[in-house]
Amino acid sequence: MRLIPANFAQHIEYSPLTPSEQVQASCTIAREKVEVGDYDAGCLALQPWWTIGEWPKQVGLTQLAAAELLLTAGTLSGWVASTRHVEGGQNCAERLLSGAVALFDHLGEATKSGEARAELGYCYYRQGLFDLARTTLRCSLGDLSDREFELRGMVLIRLATVERHASKLHDAVGQLNEAGRLIDYLSPWTKGRFHLEFATTLKDLGIAENQSEYFDRALNHYRDAFSHFEGVGNHRYTAIVENNHGYLLSALHRFDDAQLHLERARKLHQRRSHDATVLKRRMEAELKTLGMRSAIFEPRLAPIAIDGAAFVHDGIALGPTGFNVVEFYLSPNLGQPPLPLARVASGGELSRVMLALKRLEAQRRGVATIIFDEVDVGIGGAVGEIVGRKLKQLARFHQILCVTHLAQIAAFADRHFAVEKEERRGTTRSRATTLEDADRPAEIARMLGGVETSDKFVRAARELIERASE
Questions:
Q1: Distance between CA atoms of residues 395 and 401, nearest Å
Q2: Any idea what DSSP says for residue 437?
Q3: Which CATH number is associated with domain 347-468?
Q4: What is the pTM of this model?
């Protein structure tokens, strides 16, 4: 590759994202998805390194990045197993989280050890191992400094959940009172969990001790929980708060107020059903434009099993996800039945599904900039050109930053940066060079044919650029 002289090109030197840095960035995205209850998107964020039910790929990662991957994968496994009642799912989560704890302990990362133990303790709780959950969560508190407000608050809330399920309601209130002293430092998501747990505990206390004062306090906490969950856009927890709030009002014979909350909960459920239908139609249209002409995409809403519900009313099971759980199903080829996305899609198909989802989400939210890192995984040839054209269309409305090794995608760029690694003074650096129009054919020819290019590849590169500009 020929570098452009300084008076013709901008030179930007930077250290490239290593595989470990890529993993840590993807883990951050996955955790953000967990916060809003979008576990499918969280799993997709980790897809290059991990598929649910399997052990993550850790080759080439630092120990810290490997531990972070184990922690995030274990957290996601626990939530997915809990919401979808996956048999043996908590055991898988337990193995991943135990691995994360061991690695963080080995590295002397006390705060991360505490975070991993907090997730492991919650995993034990989900399995009904309350004594082990309690011990693990208390050990987690011992790992955390007094300044780790968010993590300490989350652990105290989870301890309260364990005590409530162990019928130690006053102990649960004690944990929540301690968490309440940190309330000003907690994120909206954790504040929502705090108020929901406090409301549930006070409701149980009111029933156990026949004290109406507890019910009144519980209603206030339900209102606060709804506000926080609605603020972060977690529809699953918003729905369950509305249901719990409504049923408590019914039990107190405040029927007018109860009907209001139950109706709002049903509307949330109806909205989810409607949105699933809209998403199916729009995703299938997007996938057709990406070369998957016969693909079937289905967001399926399945009712929660009664034996795993938080409670049952009028034959309807309710849990942390509301009335139901959601999972994406895909049939990539004609004549194949739709199966869970995580099990059926190849790397190339997942790349296109992710591109389609990102495109629809960006359109819905009005996102200014979208970054695609190696969206070409598992694709090539004609499909690569289709993806490149789709990215070009997206660039009419958003700023698109795309990292690609595929010439068919690079040909569509408005601004093309060539990246070259070099070793200097015992370290490796990368140089990104802005290519002028006259120099693009040579770079794209190199992407097509390797280091040694010929006139044939240069002609092919020019043809790609010409087609991309049509």
A1: 9
A2: G
A3: 3.40.50.300
A4: 0.58
Helices (H) and strands (E) in the chain, counts: 18, 10
Dihedral (Cα; 199, 201, 202, 203), 10-degree rounding: 80
State the Cα–Cα distance between residues 371 and 156, nearest whole angstrom. Answer: 37
What angle, 0 to 180 degrees and rounded to 10, lies between the N-to-C axes of helices 130-143 and 110-126? 170
Please report where in the chains the tokens 């989280």 appear, as a residue: 97
56, 65 contact by CB (below 8 A) = no
User: Do 210 and 181 touch, CB atoms closer than 8 A?
Assistant: no
Q: Which alpha helices (DSSP H) does 85-109 contain, by range?
A: 89-107
Do β-strands 339-340 and 324-331 pair in parallel, antiparallel, or remain unpaired?
antiparallel
Residue 266 pLDDT > 80, yes or no?
no
- 362 contacts: CB under 8 Å, gap ≥ 6: 370, 394, 398
| Domain range summary for the chain, segments of one domain joined by + | 18-265, 266-345, 347-468
pLDDT tens per residue across span 397-431: 778 888 888 888 888 888 898 888 777 777 778 88
**Domain 18-265, second-level architecture:** Alpha Horseshoe (1.25)
Helical residues (DSSP H) of 345-406, grouped into ranges: 347-365, 381-394
> Do 18-265 and 347-468 come out as alike in CATH topology?
no
